[in-house]
């Protein structure tokens, strides 16, 4: 029945606002057909925020983020802002909000939809039915470790350096996210490290083993990252839940994304710490960027954004039935042969961003009938 779930929408830059519009339509549909009411605030982030306020993450957005039960973001960035100093570029807004909300767990599903299986560059039998979840540690590791920088050396040469660091709590909390999620899936977790070379990941492996002891029903395995990269391409279906460090997760999740052959289809969730009410902070966004090359043309694929919204329903509000509705509508639309340009194939019907939105609403109507 009616709830008052507080959402913050951050459409961002490029195609962000275009694909977010299609989510608004799904929300209107839910409002009318399923009596679910959201209290939605819209805010600025990235280049859009720089243009308006001079900074990529205004205080107002941060305040709204803290007040929200969940955040749905589009994407940030574009050539217009690439000339700015590194510290004030749009991507700083995204890193900033992740850090501020303590979003330490990045969930990236790599799902191959049957209707799109032939879009992968890999053979059909390798990817058909693929459904894996990569959990990337998001607020620690080498992307945030200190000291970092570039310094001058004697003789005019320079030295660039970053630090890979992890603490016990950082590893244990991401380990628990992986185990809990695996409990709702196929009860298998593969932790990925480079424990043959990097001390910080020797500790990562040791701490994962400790976390695993509290979950005897979950099978925990370990793999070196170089082997994992190879296995992801050789036989990706051997994995179910993968948990790994910030940098390894960044690379492996992009690799897994390409197994699906369609960047415009991939949602993600970033989960954080729980507040005193037990509410876990959460930000949902498509995996792809702001696609400046196609922005404003009405041809962007809105499905990753819509699937990010379905993850929001599932993980932040336990609205499983509504999330299933949305996921099923996406499957049905693909089965009908409707495709935006990025996933276009022979014999399929090309649709625009809003045409895809029309089709989703149509399918939702049919599912609810
Ligand atoms: P991108 O994901 O924006 O685009 C890569 C290619 O995929 C482009 O050809 C684009 O047209 C296409 N594409 C992406 N999403 C699509 C969609 N929904 N429908 C149809 N086609 C789609 O990556 P990029 O080109 O490397 O980066 C562009 C900008 O986005 C940069 O400023 C980058 O920093 C930023 N970026 C932001 C995020 C984020 O906000 N989370 C993530 C990645 C890149």
In short:
The chain has helices spanning 16-33, 47-53, 59-67, 90-100, 124-127, 168-183, 199-213, 225-234, 246-259, 303-317, 320-335, 353-368, and strands spanning 5-12, 38-42, 70-75, 105-111, 131-137, 149-152, 158-161, 188-193, 219-224, 241-244, 267-274, 280-286, 338-339, 349-350.
Search tags:
about 40% helix; globular; 12 helices; 10-stranded mixed beta sheet; alpha/beta; Isopropylmalate Dehydrogenase; about 375 residues; 2 domains; single chain; binds nicotinamide-adenine-dinucleotide; two-stranded antiparallel sheet
Walk me through the structure.
By secondary structure, the chain is α/β, with parallel strands linked by helices. It has twelve helices and 14 strands. It has helices at residues 16-33, 47-53, 59-67, 90-100, 124-127, 168-183, 199-213, 225-234, 246-259, 303-317, 320-335, 353-368, and strands at residues 5-12, 38-42, 70-75, 105-111, 131-137, 149-152, 158-161, 188-193, 219-224, 241-244, 267-274, 280-286, 338-339, 349-350. The strands form three sheets. It has a ten-stranded mixed sheet, sandwiched between helices. Strands 6-7 form a two-stranded antiparallel sheet. Bound molecules: nicotinamide-adenine-dinucleotide (NAD). Nicotinamide-adenine-dinucleotide binds at residues 15, 75-78, 91, 94, 263-264, 285, 288-294, 300-301, 304, 340, 342.
């Amino acid at each position: 029945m009616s709830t008052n779930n507080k959402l913050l929408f951050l459409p961002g830059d490029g195609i962000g606002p275009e694909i977010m519009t299609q989510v608004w339509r799904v929300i209107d549909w839910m409002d009318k057909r399923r009596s679910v009411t959201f209290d939605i605030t819209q805010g600025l982030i990235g280049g859009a925020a720089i243009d308006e306020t001079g900074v990529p993450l205004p205080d107002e957005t941060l305040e709204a983020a803290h007040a929200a039960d969940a955040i749905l973001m589009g994407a940030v960035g574009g050539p217009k802002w690439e000339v700015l100093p590194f510290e004030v570029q749009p991507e700083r807004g995204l890193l900033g909000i992740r850090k501020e909300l303590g979003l330490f767990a990045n969930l990236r599903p790599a799902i191959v939809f049957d209707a799109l299986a032939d879009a992968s560059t890999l053979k059909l039998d390798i990817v058909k039915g693929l459904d894996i979840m990569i959990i990337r540690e998001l607020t620690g590791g080498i992307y945030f470790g200190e000291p970092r920088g570039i310094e001058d050396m004697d003789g005019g040469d320079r030295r660039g350096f970053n630090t890979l660091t992890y603490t016990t709590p950082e590893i244990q909390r991401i380990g628990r996210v992986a185990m809990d999620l695996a409990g709702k899936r196929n009860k298998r977790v593969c932790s990925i490290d480079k424990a043959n070379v990097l001390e910080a990941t020797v500790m990562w492996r040791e701490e994962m083993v400790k976390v695993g002891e509290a979950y005897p029903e979950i099978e925990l395995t370990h793999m070196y990252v170089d082997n994992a990269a190879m296995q992801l391409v050789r036989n990706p279906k051997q994995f179910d839940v993968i948990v790994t460090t910030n940098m390894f997760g960044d690379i492996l999740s992009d690799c897994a994304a390409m197994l699906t052959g369609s960047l415009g289809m991939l949602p993600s969730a970033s989960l954080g710490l729980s507040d005193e009410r037990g509410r876990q902070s959460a930000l949902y966004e498509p995996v792809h960027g702001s696609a400046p090359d196609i922005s404003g043309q009405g041809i962007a694929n809105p499905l990753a954004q819509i699937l990010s919204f379905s993850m929001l329903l599932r993980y932040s509000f336990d609205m499983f039935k509504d999330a299933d509705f949305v996921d099923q509508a996406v499957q049905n639309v693909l089965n009908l042969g409707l495709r935006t340009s990025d996933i276009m194939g022979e014999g399929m019907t090309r649709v625009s961003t809003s045409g895809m939105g029309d089709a989703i609403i149509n399918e939702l109507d049919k599912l609810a009938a």
